Amino acid sequence: MSLVINEKSLPRLQLIGMLTLVLVFTLGLGIHFTLQHERDFEASLAALEAETLAQQQSLLEAEVDSKRNYLEFVRSRTESVLKTSLKVQVDQALRLAEAIYAQEKGKRPEKEIRRLVVEALRPLRFFDGRGYFFIDDLAGNCVLLPTAPGREGSSLLDNRDDSGHYIMRGLIEAGTRGDGYSRYRWYAPGNEKEMADKIAYVRRFEPFGWLIGAGDYLYQMEADLQREALERLRSVRFAHDGYLAVLHENGNILITPANPGIEGRRLDSLGGSDEQRTIGRILDLARQGGGPIRYDWINPATGRLSPKLSVVRPVESWGWVLIAGVYLDDLQEDLARRRSSLESGVRQHISTTALVLAVAAGATLLFSFFFSGWLARLFRQYREDLDSRNAQLLENARELKLAAQVFESGNEGMVITDGDNRIITVNQAFTRITGYRPEEVVGQNPAIFSSGRHDADFYRQMWHQLRDTGAWAGEIWNRRKDGSFFPEWLNISSVRDEGGQASHYIAAFSDITERKAAEAQVRHLAEYDALTNLPNRVLLQDRLGQAIAAARRAGSCLALLFLDLDRFKNINDSLGHTVGDQVLCQVGERLLTAVRASDTVSRLGGDEFVLLLPQLESPAQAASVAEKLLHTLATPLAIDDYELAVTPSIGIAVFPEDGEDGDTLLKNADAAMYVAKESGRNNYQYFTAAMNARVSQRLLLENNLRQALARQELALHYQPQYDLHSGTLVGCEALLRWRQPEQGLIPPDRFIPVAEETGLILPIGQWVLREACRQAQAWQDAGLPPLVVAVNISAVQFRQANLAALVQEALAASGLSPCWLELELTESMLMEDGERHTQTLAQLKAMGIRLALDDFGTGYSSLAYLKRFSLDKLKIDRSFIRDLPQDADDAAITTAIIGMARDLGLETLAEGVETEQQWSFLAERGCAQMQGFLRARPMPADEITALLGRHGSATPANG
Question: What is the pLDDT of residue 346?
Answer without folding.
Answer: 65
